[in-house]
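Section 5: illustrative case.
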């Protein structure tokens, strides 16, 4: 019986394979079925097929809204919670591994991290990256999750953790689900507000990055906005 079999013995066989040889040789479908696990009314491979057909690929699956995920036949709240937790662990492990070695010298240094965090999202997510005096990443936090085209961000939420971490600088970033990475007037206005708050706190706002479908735009590079309050 092959590794990708849907038979009842496939689950234990896959688990043995992972323990002996690691998970890298398994298909997306098999890995997903292992995460979903048994205990449901329907075979995890059948549910994995449905999820992948609906989302297109793993990137789409990562951006699937929990309410949509739960409505997938055979999922249920238990399987959905396991899958969401696994996806979040993957994202956190990437950031944890990155922040121990990543030193930001230019916006492009952050592109792989940001693409992984924004991939497949159908709504705006606003991130804050906190840096030490050598511009090494201390932490990456989600500040706000918005709607299809807007996220509500308060400077207090951005700088609260910066103060707690004794961060020397902050970089903020958000995605445009529309795919267009051009900063909006609201993006520029928010950047100016955050910059002024950072100056008052002595914590530099180094950049604001806007991610679209094919590019990530640095507001610092295209022209830093002037705070109208100054």
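Designed sequence:
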């Amino acid at each position: 019986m092959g590794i990708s079999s849907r038979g009842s013995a496939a689950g234990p066989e896959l688990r043995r394979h992972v323990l002996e040889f690691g998970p890298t040789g398994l298909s997306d479908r098999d890995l997903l079925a292992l995460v979903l696990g048994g205990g449901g009314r329907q075979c995890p491979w059948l549910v994995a097929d449905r999820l992948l057909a609906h989302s297109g690929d793993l990137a789409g699956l990562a951006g699937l809204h929990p309410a949509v995920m739960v409505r997938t036949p055979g999922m249920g709240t238990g399987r959905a919670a396991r899958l969401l937790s696994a996806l979040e662990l993957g994202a956190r492990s990437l950031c944890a591994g990155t922040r121990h070695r990543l030193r930001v010298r230019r916006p492009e240094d952050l592109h792989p991290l940001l693409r992984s965090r924004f991939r497949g999202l159908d709504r705006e997510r606003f991130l804050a990256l906190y840096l030490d005096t050598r511009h090494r990443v201390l932490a990456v936090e989600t500040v706000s999750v918005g709607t299809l085209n807007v996220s509500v961000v308060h400077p207090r939420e951005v700088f609260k953790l910066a103060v707690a971490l004794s961060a020397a600088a902050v970089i903020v970033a958000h995605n445009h689900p529309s795919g267009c990475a051009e900063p909006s007037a609201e993006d520029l206005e928010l950047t100016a507000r955050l910059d002024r708050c950072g100056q008052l706190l002595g914590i530099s706002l180094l950049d604001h990055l806007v991610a679209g479908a094919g590019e990530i735009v640095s507001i610092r590079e295209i022209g830093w906005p002037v705070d109208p309050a100054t």
